[in-house]
Design brief:
It is a single chain. The protein is an alpha/beta fold. The chain has 2 domains: 1-30, no CATH class; 34-255, Rossmann fold (3-Layer(aba) Sandwich), CATH 3.40.50. Helix content is 28%, strand content 28%. The protein has 8 helices and 11 strands. The strands form 2 sheets. An 8-stranded mixed β-sheet has the order 4-7-6-5-8-9-11-10, sandwiched between helices. The longest helix has 13 residues, at 53-65. It starts with 13 loop residues before the first strand and ends with a strand.
């Protein structure tokens, strides 16, 4: 199911005890925590791309505090995965959404993120899933039609590659921050739904759209975590306890015929 990421190779990888190997002998070690790093030097802009260990740890604390549980529930209900599904999460971060959903529904799960600290944390917490370090904006290192469902939660959007690795009739769930997401910290923001739907046409057609919103009282430590886990400018400095809105626009797409 995995493809060799070396430029102009793209042969299938075969698993050996502690590594993945292609027929041309390109080899990729499996880390102690269980992930495999398929990121090639030409596919990264910096030495340590993606979220930092600090940002990933902050996001994990927020997820584990339960504040995003209603969003997880909404994503799970809309995706409605079955145990026979194979699900890819592109830009999976610490693996909270994919790992939690696969524990609940028993499907085969693969998470991709460009950040080693994110994937390492994901692999330690959810060892039953496959975790890959790769650039989801370039070639997704998986055989075509490997997945029946794809998740992209405030993360990567690569329509041609999503289409290639998704089976015909498969579904793609894209979650983007809604205009009221974190409104207490950064004021209202742009509605990105129209632009996002447009960027997936004509490869995907929208099947369903809904907004998932929850509010939670955060203490100063959690607000600080939010400041670390968010790239968009936040207004509250220094962090103080407050009620915060988390809100995602969920877009469910199907492969266009
Ligand atoms: C806002 S976070 C969302 C993480 C996770 N989906 C969640 O909702 O908790 C975006 C993630 O995308 C990752 N990322 C950024 N650029 C990427 C790329 N080109 N390929 C794969 N992942 C990328 C970051 O490292 C980060 O973990
Ligand atoms: Zn190779």
């Amino acid at each position: 199911m995995l493809l060799c990421p070396v430029r102009d190779c793209q042969q299938p990888l075969h698993r050996e005890d502690r590594r993945w190997l292609c027929p041309r002998s390109h080899s990729f070690d499996i880390a102690r925590s269980g992930y495999v790093n398929l990121l090639q030097p030409q596919d990264r802009r910096s030495k340590n791309p993606g979220d930092t260990a600090e940002a990933v740890a902050a996001r994990r604390r927020l997820h584990h505090s339960g504040v995003t549980a209603p969003l997880l529930h909404a994503i799970g209900s809309l995706l409605a995965p079955a145990s026979h599904d194979t699900v890819l999460d592109a830009g999976c971060g610490d693996g909270f959404y994919l790992g939690s959903l696969s524990l609940l529904h028993g499907f085969q799960a693969t998470g991709i993120d460009i950040s080693i600290p994110a994937i390492d944390l994901a692999a330690r917490r959810y060892p039953h899933c496959h975790w890959l370090v790769a650039n989801a904006d370039r070639v997704i290192p998986c055989v075509g039609e490997s997945f029946s469902k794809i998740l992209s939660i405030t993360a990567r959007m690569n329509p041609p590659e999503f289409r290639r690795v998704l089976r015909p009739g498969g579904q793609l769930l894209v979650a983007i921050p809604s205009p009221i997401d974190l409104i207490e910290l950064r004021g209202p923001s742009r509605d990105r739904v129209g632009r996002t739907i447009q960027s997936f046409a004509p490869l995907f057609t929208l099947q369903h759209q809904q907004r998932a919103t929850t509010t939670a009282p955060l203490d100063a430590g959690a607000v600080r975590d939010l400041q670390h886990a968010t790239y968009r400018p936040l207004q509250s400095q220094p962090a103080e306890a407050m009620q915060v809105t988390f809100s995602l626009d969920l877009l469910l797409f199907a492969t266009a015929p």
